[in-house]
C-alpha cells in the first residue's frame, strides 16, 4: 500500500469490478480509456492481479484517506510488446482538478524508481488528452515517441530514474 497526504493506493482486485465498470462508463472518462462490460472488467482486473503476482507491481485503486472513498486508479503497467513499464492515472470526473492524479502519480513514481529500481517509466497518453499531458509535464516527463496503444494513436512520454531523482 502506498499513502500520500490525502490518498491511499492499494492493488486493484476483481472485487473492484463494479466500480471499474462505473468509472469507465462516464463518457468523459471513457473517451480516452474506453468502456468495459462486467465481463471485460473482471478479465482486466484478473490480468492486473496476475501482473502483481508475476512482476510485483500493477494498477492500484486510489482512495481518499479521510473517507476510504474510491476515486480513481493509478499505478504501473507492464507492456510486453513495448518492453516498458508505464504509469497510468484515471480518476472519476467528480475528482478532476484537485491534484489527485499528480499526487498519486508522484507517489507511484517514487515507489517505482525507489523500491522497484526501475530505470525508466513511460506514460502513454492518447491524443487530445490535454489534462493527462499536463500531469506528465508537471511530473517531469519528456516526449519520447508517437505510437499506437489499444488501436489508438498516442504520444509516449518517458522519465528516467536519474532525472526523477535530480528534480
From TrEMBL:
Q: Which PROSITE patterns match?
A: GNAT
InterPro entries from the UniProt entry: Acyl_CoA_acyltransferase, GNAT_dom, N-acetyltransferase
Residue intervals passing through the bilayer: none
Residue ranges constituting the N-acetyltransferase domain according to the UniProt record: 7-162
Which named protein is this? GNAT family N-acetyltransferase
Amino acid at each position: 500500500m502506498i499513502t500520500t497526504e490525502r490518498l491511499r493506493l492499494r492493488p486493484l482486485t476483481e472485487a473492484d469490478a463494479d466500480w471499474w465498470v462505473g468509472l469507465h462508463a462516464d463518457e468523459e472518462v471513457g473517451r480516452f480509456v474506453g468502456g468495459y462490460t462486467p465481463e471485460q472488467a473482471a478479465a482486466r482486473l484478473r490480468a492486473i492481479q496476475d501482473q502483481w503476482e508475476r512482476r510485483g507491481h500493477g494498477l492500484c485503486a486510489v482512495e481518499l484517506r479521510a473517507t476510504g472513498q474510491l476515486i480513481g486508479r493509478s499505478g504501473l503497467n507492464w507492456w510486453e510488446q513495448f518492453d516498458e513499464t508505464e504509469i497510468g492515472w484515471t480518476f472519476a470526473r467528480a475528482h478532476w482538478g484537485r491534484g489527485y492524479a499528480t499526487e498519486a502519480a508522484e507517489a507511484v513514481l517514487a515507489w517505482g524508481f525507489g523500491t522497484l529500481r526501475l530505470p525508466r517509466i513511460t506514460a502513454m497518453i492518447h491524443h487530445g488528452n490535454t489534462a493527462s499531458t499536463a500531469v506528465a509535464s508537471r511530473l517531469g516527463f519528456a516526449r519520447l515517441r508517437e505510437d499506437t496503444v489499444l488501436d489508438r494513436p498516442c504520444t509516449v512520454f518517458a522519465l528516467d530514474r536519474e532525472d526523477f531523482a535530480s528534480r
